[in-house]
Amino acid sequence: MVSKELFALEEPVAALNSRDASDFEVEWLRVHKALSELERSQPMTESARRLMKEIEEESFKTVYTVSGSTEFTKFAPAVSEDFGLLARGLCYGHRDVWLSGLLASYQQGIFPCGRIQPSEKTLDELLVQEALL
């Protein structure tokens, strides 16, 4: 999902900055808050917490490997946080059209920023669809 195409951006810094100054940040924080509330009411097991940390770390490292450029090292934290959010959503079976759209962006090789196209599919459905392709 984290491929070289993901970093084929004409203006990488502008794309990264648009995550902080747009609907993207509002939606990201909304989903993060919803998942945090779920975590408070239904704490994760220790093994699930370790898995979330591994997913975030692996996605962080993958950005360096795939991008092949120090210019894109700024993307590693953003990608890592996105994958952490997606993993938490999967862990809790959280249904959210924006979160599904975030995953769909990565699956399409598009760095998610600005306005994300919502997806009616669940995270599970998107991952199964990816596996079948």
Topology of helices and strands:
Layout (H helix, E strand, L loop, with lengths): L11 H7 L4 H19 L4 H22 L7 H18 L4 H11 L15 H10 L1
Describe the structure.
With 133 residues, the chain is mainly α. It has one domain (4-132). It contains 6 helices and no strands. The chain is globular. It starts with 11 loop residues before the first helix and ends with a helix. The model has no long low-confidence stretch (mean pLDDT 88).
Write a compact overview of the structure shown:
This protein is an all-alpha fold and 133 residues long. The chain has helices spanning 12-18, 23-41, 46-67, 75-92, 97-107, 123-132.
* Mean pLDDT level: 88
Order of helices and strands: HHHHHH
Helix content: 55-70%
| Rg (CA only) | 14 Å
Alpha-carbon distance between the two ends: 12 Å
Low-confidence stretches: none
| Strands, total number | 0
Task: Output the structural class.
Answer: mainly alpha
Beta content: under 5%
Work out the helix count: 6
How many discrete structural domains?
A: 1
Major β-sheet profile: none
What best-fitting shape do the alpha-carbon axes yield? Answer: globular
Summary keywords:
mainly alpha; 6 helices; 133 residues
